[in-house]
Write a structure and sequence with these properties.
The structure is a homodimer of 419-residue chains. By secondary structure, chain A is an alpha/beta fold. Helices cover 37% and strands 24% of the residues of chain A. The first copy, chain A, has two domains: 4-247, Carbamate kinase, CATH 3.40.1160; 257-403, 2-Layer Sandwich (VC0802-like). Chain A is built from 13 helices and 17 strands.
C-alpha cells in the first residue's frame, strides 16, 4: 500500500465486497518503501556478523511496517462505516518456526479471526509475520504477505484468496519483453508453481506452494483497478490459479514462458570420470551456501569429463574462486575452470506437455532457426528450460511466444523515441 | 532518540554502564518525530468521531514507533559487543487497563526481563505501551515512556531509574525565562510532583506519581551529555528525585518556581448565594469534559456572590458559550459572565514551606512591589499559586526567583540582537 490515498481506496474496495455480502479478511503489506526504510536504518547500525540475535531484532523491526499499515487500514475502514479490527501476527496467533527473517508458518489459529467475522467486522491481519514457540516475533521474508494471505485463507477455508498486486494477472510471458503477451484467465496450480520457480515474479513461490498444499483457489488481480468498478467484473478479472483442469486449458500445450537474466554458468573441464566426482565439486559449492540450479555432465571421453552448472550471477566470482582454491588442486593436472557470467534461462511451461509429444523439439527448432545456441537443457514433466547466452533472451522469448501460439492482440504500446 | 547516530550513542552510553558492572534495562522512546508522523497518517484517514474502535487502532499504530527504536537499539548494542534483546509491551508483559491512548499500567511481570538480565543481556523494553486483558495493544499517552521506565524499575526493584531527557535536570525555574536559574542537585518527590502538576515539563506527572507509589529513586539527566564522560560524573549529574529529606534540602524554603501560560479565567457575577450554586455552574462545565483548575468564590454581598475559575485556554470559548446558553438562563436576572483568556499561574513550591511561616506573604509582597495584580490565590501544604495577567509572567517569575534566593550564576547567555 502506498499513500493514505491508496489505503483509503483499499478500504473502499473492501467495503464494496462487504456490501455484496462477503466476509472479508485483509492481509495488507507494509506501506510502499517502509520495509526498505526500516532495514536501511538497521544497516547503519548492524555489526559485520549477522547473528541470530541480530536477525531476531531485524524481524521485530520489520514487523512494525505491516502493523502500522494494518492499523491505518482498520481506521480507513471505520471511516467508511464498517466495523473493523486489526490483528498482529501474535494476536491471531500465526505460529512459525524460529528461522528469523525467513520463518515458515507452522499453524494459524483461526478462532480470533472467526469470532470477529461473526460480529460482522472486517478483520485485518498483518502479513509477513508471526511468532515462534518462545513468543519471539518472526518474519517470513520478502513477499511474505502473499504467503500469509494464502495461509490465513487456508486456515479459514476461504472461498477464494485474492492477491492484489502491481500487475493485473499472470501473462503468457513478461509483457515488457513481448508486447502482445496475453493475460491468462486461468492457470493450473502446477504451472503457476513452475512459472514462479522459473523467474515469474508475479507470486512468491512459497505462497503458491501453500495454496497447493491446502488447495486454496488464488486469484491474482491488479491493485490499480479503480476501486469502484463493478464487483462482478472485478471478481472475474485477473488470473485464477485453479486446481480444476478444464478442457479449455488442455487446448494450450504451453501456457507461459518464463525467463531469468541473473544467472552465470561455470564449467569444470577435464575432470577424472570417477564415482563421487560430481559430489566433490558440487559438495564444496553447497558447503559455501551457494545455490546451484541447472547441472549437466558431458559424456566421458578418455576417462575425463566436463561438469557444468549454473549459479546466481551474484555468486559467480565467489564460486570461481572457491573452485580454483579448494577443488581444482585436488582434481589433478589438466583440470580447468571456465565460466560465463552472462547467461539466461528460458523455460516453457504447460500441463499440456504431459500429453503432447514434440513440444521440446518445437522449442529447439525455433531457437535453432533464430541461430540461438542452446548451452544446457533441463526438463520436467510440465516444463523445458534452456540455458542460452543472455543477449538472445528477448529474441528467444519472442520467437517461442509466437511458435507456441501465445501471441494475442498487441496490448502494450512501445513508446517511440525520437533522435 | 533521533537519528541512528543518536541510537549508537545511547548504545555506547549503556555499554559504559554495563562495563562498570551494572545490570541495565533500557526503555527507549520512539525515534524523534516518528509518533507524530504515524499519527499524522492516521489523521488523514480518521472519521470525525473518534470511537473506541479507532482509538484501539491508533494505539496499535503508535506502538510501532517504540518497537522499531527498541529493535534498532538492540542491534546497536550487539554491534558494541553486548548481548541484548528487545521486548515489546506484550512480550514482557506490561498489563494495562483498556483506556486506549491513555491506558494505565496495572501490573508488570518482571520474570522475562530478569531471566535475560541473568544471562548477562541488556534488556530493552518498548516504553509507552502495554496490553489489556484481551490482548489488545494499548498506549499510555504522550510521555508514557517515562512512566514505563519508572514502572519497570519498580517491578524490578531497580537501584535507580535514570530518565535521559532534553534538559540536564530540574531547575529552580525555566532557564528560558530566568537566565540564572539553577539546576537542583536533588529535590524531594513531593516537590517534583507539585512542579510537574504546576507546569514544569521535565517529567510527566504520572511517572512521578509512579515513582512515589513504589519509592523508585529517579534521576533526570541530559541525553545530550557526551556518552564518554566519566561514569562517576554522569552518575552524579542531573537532578535526583529522592525520598530522603536531608538537612541541605531543609535550608531552601522554596525549591522551585513553576508557571503555566495557557490558562483563561471565567467569572460568573451576581449569582444568588444559595447552597448548590457552585455545583450548578461547575457541574455543567464538568459534564462538558472541561477541566477546571483554580476556583474562588467571593464573599457574599446582598445575597449575591461571584464565582471565578480557570480553564485551559483552548476550552475558553466553549466554556463561555456553555455558561451563556445553559447556565445563565437558570440563574436569573443580573447574572453576568465575563472572562479573561490571557492569564497565567505562577507557583512557588518547597517542602520548607511546611515549617517556615511567611512564605506566602513574601510572595505577595514581592509581586505587589512589582505592581503585579494577583487575581486568584490557591495554596497547599508545600505550594502557593497565584493567577495573574499573562503579560506579567516573566516579571513575576524573575522577581520571585530573586526574592527566594534562588538566583545562581548566570548560565545562559541571552543572545544580543542588533537593530
Amino acid at each position: 500500500m502506498g499513500s493514505t490515498e491508496r489505503i483509503r481506496n483499499v478500504a473502499r474496495r473492501v467495503a464494496k465486497w462487504v456490501k455484496a455480502g462477503h466476509q472479508i479478511v485483509v492481509v495488507p503489506s507494509a506501506m510502499s518503501g517502509e520495509t526498505n526504510r526500516l532495514l536501511a536504518l538497521a544497516a547503519e547500525l548492524e555489526p559485520a556478523q549477522r547473528t541470530d540475535g541480530i536477525r531476531r531484532e531485524l524481524d521485530a523491526l520489520a514487523a512494525t511496517g505491516e502493523q502500522a499499515s494494518s492499523a491505518l487500514l482498520a481506521i480507513a475502514l471505520q471511516a467508511e462505516g464498517l466495523g473493523s479490527i486489526s490483528f498482529t501476527g501474535w494476536q491471531v496467533p500465526v505460529r512459525t518456526d524460529s528461522s528469523y527473517t525467513k520463518a515458515r508458518i507452522e499453524s494459524i489459529d483461526g478462532e480470533n479471526i472467526r469470532q470477529q467475522l461473526q460480529q460482522g467486522k472486517v478483520v485485518i491481519v498483518t502479513g509477513f509475520q508471526g511468532i515462534d514457540a518462545d513468543h519471539n516475533i518472526t518474519t517470513l521474508g520478502r513477499g511474505g504477505s502473499d504467503t500469509s494471505a494464502v495461509a490465513i485463507a487456508a486456515a479459514l477455508q476461504a472461498d477464494e484468496c485474492l492477491i492484489y498486486t502491481d500487475v493485473d494477472g499472470v501473462y503468457t510471458t513478461d509483457p515488457r519483453v513481448v508486447a502482445n503477451a496475453k493475460r491468462l484467465k486461468s492457470i493450473s496450480f502446477e504451472e503457476m508453481l513452475e512459472l514462479a520457480s522459473l523467474g515469474s515474479k508475479v507470486l512468491q513461490i512459497r505462497s503458491v506452494e501453500f495454496a497447493g498444499k491446502y488447495r486454496v483457489p488464488l486469484r491474482v488481480l491488479s491493485s490499480f483497478t479503480p476501486w469502484d468498478i463493478d464487483l462482478a467484473e472485478e471478481a472475474r478479472s485477473g488470473t485464477l490459479i485453479t486446481f480444476e483442469e478444464d478442457e479449455k486449458m488442455e487446448k494450450a500445450v504451453v501456457s507461459g514462458i518464463a525467463f531469468t537474466r541473473d544467472e552465470a554458468k561455470i564449467s569444470v573441464l577435464g575432470v577424472p570420470d570417477t564415482p563421487g566426482i560430481a559430489y566433490q565439486i558440487l559438495g564444496a559449492v553447497a558447503d559455501a551456501n551457494i545455490e546451484v540450479d541447472v547441472i549437466i555432465q558431458n559424456l566421458s571421453k578418455d576417462g575425463k569429463t566436463d561438469l557444468s552448472f549454473t549459479v546466481t550471477r551474484g555468486d559467480y566470482e565467489r564460486t570461481l574462486q572457491l573452485l580454483q582454491d579448494k577443488v581444482v588442486p585436488k582434481l589433478g593436472e589438466g583440470t580447468k575452470v571456465v565460466g560465463n557470467p552472462n547467461i539466461s534461462k528460458v523455460s516453457i511451461v504447460g500441463i499440456g506437455m504431459r500429453s503432447h509429444s514434440g513440444v521440446a523439439s518445437t522449442m529447439f527448432r525455433t531457437l535453432s532457426q533464430e541461430n540461438v545456441n542452446i548451452q544446457m537443457i533441463t526438463t520436467s514433466e510440465i516444463k523445458t528450460s534452456v540455458v542460452i547466452d543472455e543477449k538472445y533472451v528477448e529474441l528467444a522469448v519472442r520467437s517461442l511466444h509466437t511458435a507456441f501460439g501465445l501471441d494475442g492482440d498487441t496490448r502494450i504500446e512501445v513508446p517511440q523515441r525520437n533522435g
